[in-house]
Each structure stands twice: as structure tokens, then as C-alpha cells.
Design goal:
By secondary structure, the protein is an all-alpha fold. Helix content is 75%, strand content 0%. It is built from 9 helices and no strands.
């Protein structure tokens, strides 16, 4: 995935950029499916929820402008998922719950999965930031960081494998971690 910030990805989506849409879809589909699971939706309903949420973004792409001052993107996304889940559950004809009680049920079910959502969101941010880091630092810096931090190799092993000094390995790791923290903070705005 190309180095993108959430704002540049949203801009690409708003322009109707197909690559931006695909990245957006791949990035957020797992989180939407997670929320569908929290709502005890079956697989077909979870896939429909993904489509409804994506259509919500697509349908408003010409008029939508994300405003950071009004809150975090993750909260905006959660609100869209909640609203589309309510719509989906209102369409059910199983007689278990009346349409007017759906929002309360959805809120109760989502509250039970809130801790899991937060963990999944943090994991999502880290995964995205690691992908972005690969493009934001030199290949040697990323490789040293990856071998040392992600593959748990020793500094000596990394230095020998890359033909650099052990000191350089730790300097590269420090630089990569600093950039990674920036990317995570940027993505979580």
C-alpha cells in the first residue's frame, strides 16, 4: 500500500480515485465486519453492513468533508456503522425486536464489544503505520528495524545480515520507531 495519511486517502476517495477506494475498502472492511460480529449478525448480514457503510461514504463523497475539529475519524466511522446496523436490523422480519427498540439493542451490543473495538483499532493503526513506515524510511532502515523489532533478531545478527555495525542497527531502529510513532499519531487524528 502506498504511503498515505488518512486525510490524503479520504481526499482520494472524495475525488473518486479507484485506487483510493480500494485502499479505503481494504483498510476498513475488517473493522466493519468486527462490529457486525459484535452485533451478532450472520455472515450475509455482516457483508451487507460493509456494503451499506461503504455506500454511505460513496453516496456522500461529493459533499462529505471530514472535519478533524468535530472529532476523530474512528468515532465518525463507528457512528456510520451504528446507524447502518440499525437500518439493517430494522429490515429484519424475525419478530424478535420492534423497529423502535433497535437503536437501544444496537447500542447495548456495541457497548459490550467496545474494548475489543479499541484493541482492533489500535492493531489496525499499527498495521497501517507499519505499511506506511516501509515507504517513509529507506529500505535499509526499515529492514534493520523489522529484523530487530518484528523478527526479534539480535543486534549482532541484524548487523551481520545487513553488513552494517551494531550501532547503526540501533540508530536505524530509533529513527524507525520515531517515524512509526508519528505515523500512528497522524493516523489516529
Amino acid at each position: 500500500m502506498a504511503f498515505t495519511t488518512r486525510s490524503s486517502l479520504l481526499s482520494a476517495v472524495l475525488r473518486g480515485d479507484e485506487t483510493g477506494w480500494e485502499q479505503f475498502y481494504q483498510m476498513y472492511k475488517p473493522l466493519i465486519l468486527l462490529r457486525g460480529g459484535d452485533l451478532r449478525l450472520n455472515q450475509t448480514e455482516k457483508e451487507e453492513l460493509v456494503q451499506l457503510v461503504m455506500l454511505s461514504f460513496f453516496g456522500t463523497s461529493e459533499t462529505f468533508r471530514y472535519d478533524k475539529s468535530k472529532g476523530r475519524f474512528r468515532d465518525y466511522l463507528k457512528r456510520i456503522i451504528r446507524n447502518k446496523a440499525c437500518d439493517l436490523m430494522r429490515k429484519r422480519h424475525d419478530g424478535e425486536i420492534s423497529a423502535e427498540n433497535v437503536p437501544q439493542l444496537v447500542d447495548e451490543l456495541l457497548a459490550g464489544g467496545e474494548e475489543r473495538w479499541e484493541q482492533e483499532w489500535r492493531d489496525h493503526l499499527l498495521k497501517q503505520a507499519l505499511e506506511d513506515l516501509r515507504c517513509a524510511v529507506s529500505p535499509l532502515v526499515y529492514q534493520a528495524f523489522s529484523m530487530l523489532s518484528l523478527e526479534n533478531m539480535s543486534g549482532k545478527e541484524v548487523a551481520a545480515a545487513l553488513g552494517i555495525t551494531a550501532n547503526a542497527v540501533y540508530v536505524y531502529k530509533h529513527a524507525a520507531l520515531k517515524k512509526l510513532k508519528e505515523l500512528i499519531a497522524q493516523a489516529d487524528e
